[in-house]
Amino acid sequence: MKLLEREKEIISNELQDIVDEYQSKPENLIPILQKVQDKLGYLPLPAMEKIAQALHIPAVDVFGPATFYNQFRLNPPGEHQVKVCMGTACYMAGGSIAMESFERRLNIKEGETSPDRKYSLERVACVGCCTMAPVVVVDDEVEGSVTPTRVDGIMLSFEASDGEKKQEQVEGPEKEQREELEKEEKSEPEKKEGE
Ligand code: FES
Fold it and tell me: I want to staple 123 with a disulfide (CB 3.0 to 4.6 A). Which of 12, 47, 86, 179 is the partner?
């Protein structure tokens, strides 16, 4: 995944300070990874390589814990985050079918983020709403009884709300310009009268 400019800056300017804060000790790797993830939202490969350099340890010793512990994410969180519950009740009720439907619709696999960073898809453990199984958490909203048809509905509502946002962005500057023009038109005759 391509790094954003902001992420590049953090990696080049702030990462060393974080490692220094922990006395550049390899035994502090986990808190260092946590802090870097807090800053970036995930652990991109160049950040892990830089941490390895700063700690004078092989890169594989950083990748190992970063991939082992669930708390670390290797992909950036999407603008829309889809979390499919794979706890026992949801799995039995068709959680994997919901997951496959999202994978197909989003064209990404579980644990991935779309290249435009619009969507991320991940599996989560029981979220405590087993009676609604299979459950999907979409941008912090819990959706129950998620069938492939419901997945289509969720995707359509994403597309509709994104379309509305785009429209607002387009209309914003145009509206301002229109209002300014209207103001000018109104003040124009007054000017002439005063002349
Ligand atoms: S197993 Fe999915 S909410 Fe409990």
Answer: 86
